[in-house]
Amino acid sequence: MFEGFKNLKTLDLQHVDMSSDGLEALISGCPLLKFLRLRNLEGSKRINVEAGNLEWLDVEGAFQDVTFGVMNRLKSIRSLKLENYSLKYLAIGNVPQTLPNELCHLKYLFTCIDFNRVEEILTVMCLIRSSPQLKHVDFQNRAKDQQTARIGTMADFWEDHRACCLEQIQVVSMGGILGNEPELEFMKFLLTSSPNLQKMTIRPNSTSGEGKLLRELLRFRRASAQAEVIFL
User: Fold this and answer.
1) Which backbone phi and psi does 39 adopt, to 5 degrees?
2) Residue range 73-108, pLDDT digits in tens
3) Looking at the DSSP assignment, which residues form a beta bridge with residue 58?
4) Could you say which of 140, 141, 147, 154 is the most buried, measured as most Cβ atoms within 10 Å of its Cβ?
5) Is the Cβ–Cβ distance between 116 and 90 less than 8 Å?
6) Residue 60 and residue 130: Cα distance in Å, rounded?
């Protein structure tokens, strides 16, 4: 009878055909697991991670029930990557202000995000607020066009969140940036709400509108006198 891999610390599954129950059994049979990558698994729509020692989690694919309950069980997580549409599925339903249990050890957060979707932004804010040791947030734009925000203007939305202070954040990375209003308002919020920010790195989707984007960013107030904005 299979009793798991008692000494396994790294598990990397990509393009594998496996049921959700099989995946759950495999993970629960690895009590020392620290590194877990799950990408494009055929037959798995559910993630139920029970791995108390897990420090690094990378999720990509159509896991339609990635929930905040999963986040609450990641007590030792240090690096969390939500790729592709993982954040979209996590954002379904009611998004709490914070998680019931803090992600006390999380230092790096990567998300593929659609800046036009308020529920995804609120989900990211929940994860940031719940991670007191978080130092580096990394965003990859998932939107493919410059559609307008779904909630009126993003400026109105962020006006209700100006009191939020992200004291722990030191590094922000943003890739695939188009230079539209939702992205700019999000950058403005990060610059004005992060008093210990040291560096914001912007990777535009193209170089055509880079000058305009830079001019817009230079107008924004910065909570940190040490914060520098870098274009790559």
Assistant:
1) -135, 125
2) 788 999 999 998 888 888 888 888 888 889 999 999
3) 37, 81
4) 154
5) no
6) 22
